[in-house]
Amino acid sequence: MSAANIGSSSSSASSYRNESGGGQPNIESNRDLKRSELGQENSGLDFSMVPDEILMEIFQYAIKSQSDVQRLSFVSKKLNNISFDEEIWKRLSEKFGYEQIEQHNWRVSFYLNLEKSVASAIAQIMNPEKQALAQIQLVKVLPSKENIDKANNLIDTMPLDRQLNLRTELIKALFEYVKNLQLSSPLSFQIIDSYLVVKSKAQRLVLTGNKVEEFMFQSFKSRTSSLSEAHRLSARSEIALALNSNIDKALNVLDKMCETTGIASLKIEELVEFLKVVFAATGELPKATDKHIKQHPGNCAGSLSLKFELLKFLISIGQIKKTKKIIERKFRQMMPYYKAKFELELLKFLHSRKKINKAKKSINKLSNISEKDQLQIEFLVILISIGYKVEANEVIKELDPSNKNRVLFEVEKALNSIGKIQEAYELNSEITDLRMKAENKVALLAPLISIGDMDKANKIIAELKDYHWTKDEDKINFIKGLISIGRTTEAYESIKEFGPVHHHQSLLLELVKALISMGDMDEANKITSEITDCEYKFEAQIEFVKALISMGDMDEANKITSEITDCEYKFEAQIEFVKAEPSKENIEKAIKLLSEIDNNEYVKILKEKLIITLISMGNMDEANKIIEEGISEWEKLNLIRALLSIGEIKEANEMIKKLTDPGYKSSTQAIFVHAILS
To answer: Rounded CA gap, 500 and 385, in Å?
Structure first.
């Protein structure tokens, strides 16, 4: 749940307690919210124009659909501001095992219960840092003054270097929430007050933290990688917080880090990513970047690498004019390679012949062949992607003949990877090396089929049918392409010609699966009889069992199961019967098979699979019988993880109660908190 959503609808537990017991909240006042804010948390999902009724249907679908149960918490939080259907909140509470609290409606009860169960789980986490991180996670969902103060107090107990990192996380958790908070109640001012306490503590650490700085730089000299990485995180927090209040100090810290450790050990990409997250909206990064470049005009590769990453980010957030000025003023004498890279970055956003010619000249000036090839590949991908085909053809004509095929081969692969399928197909005709040409054609098969261009896919198959493959991998991909478009006869003929036995057997299995999915059971049975490898044959038989059960032909499915001689594979087949009909007879057969397996480790895995299958079907009584017969603490821990991953929150919580090992219980509580709040 985004902080903005919670604040506007008073969804922190403290504010819920102020609602009139059992009554409906004021829907109209909640709908005065900026609807566009609801989509900000997940850029791939825009709620701004979706009617409330449809959003409620999405919510209800997530509750009904077993495959989407794990999204319940996410959906409930997204719809918090607009979904006041009591039946929805009642059903959601039942999924989590929550009861309605006296004098509160189901919606309020859900959040009060959520806070209570999470707070209880956090209290049982023994590792102080994990406990603080779990509390920060709770603040993200329920940012009440009480929860913020608890997080702040937990952080106070941590070592100085860890405080920086944890307070940064807490500030990030609260930033959007405080920014959008409506100053309409005493509660709002209380939360802002708590936020400012966190912020001031963090800034005092930064501005007067000589001990922290000294400790940080000493840690970079450590040869223990885990310790060093932990302190690098603190260093990045130091830079980020300093940038927010004191650019000069931030640059000094950055320079000192570069001098002490060397650019390579800093992990530039991670540093830049961190800066992006914290400062994308503040406007401070352009100033800091400009100042850093002004103070350090040097052309060493490491320094330029960091500057390039910062400037690239400025371009990506639309600061193109500022970036151009910085490049023109500060980078006139820079290394040719980085100059060319900057021109390509600008070309992605500024499409013009002038920019194309400028990028082209910069690349042509490079003397290092490897660097030149790398940038020519990137240049061609950009030109073709933005529709400048004429200009791309001019570049292709000017390529060095000795390197032309390799460059075009990489360009085609890159276009294919970014979804420019037709462009990649057209470029393939320019490649003259037969092996490269064939390899890329095979790679195009699946994408062409996915966009429905069967004519081109069939044309590729016709061209490659008699090709003499030099790499097994290419031929395997070609055969899989044939199978995927239903050309099973041709695939079978190609498999028969395949030399290596292992590939031959695995491809026959792929063919059997395809034939079964197409409903051609007779042909699939015929191919299965040709599989000589026992494991592949058993897998094929399991596919038959699944298909026959789905068609309701239990007798034939039982017959094939009886032909499987390996107990482990027979168990896998029996699980399919349990899924179809969790009768006592089917469950007992599965348990009996477990007792016949010699490998204890594999028995644990299969037993866990059976328990999860029963729980996901709502058959808790049978699942509990197996659990009570005896499973280890470690098996219980794995089972809890698996239950949380499929959204079985209530059952996972019940399983946690059965843990007796304090260490396992503590670590599991941390997993539980993360699962139900994420």
So the answer is: 40
Closest CA to 596 of 564, 631, 567, 632: 567
DSSP 402: T
Distance CA 44, CA 49 (A): 14
Domain extents in the chain: 3-122, 469-561, 562-677
Q: For residues 270 and 129, what is the distance between their CA atoms, to the nearest angstrom?
A: 22
Q: What is the pLDDT of residues 438-495, one digit of tens each?
A: 888 888 888 888 888 888 988 888 888 778 777 777 788 788 878 877 888 888 888 8
Distance CA 429, CA 444 (A): 13
- DSSP structure string for 183-228: --SHHHHHHHHHHHHHHHHHHHHHHH-HHHHHHHHHHHT-S-HHHH
SS3 letters for 102-122?
Answer: CCCCHHHHHHHHHHHHHHHHH
pTM attached to this predicted model:
0.47
Under-50 pLDDT residues of the chain: 1-50, 66-67, 69-70, 183-185, 205-247, 249-251, 253-254, 257-271, 273-274, 277-282, 296-302
Please give the span between the terminal C-alpha atoms of the chain, in angstroms, as a whole number. Answer: 8
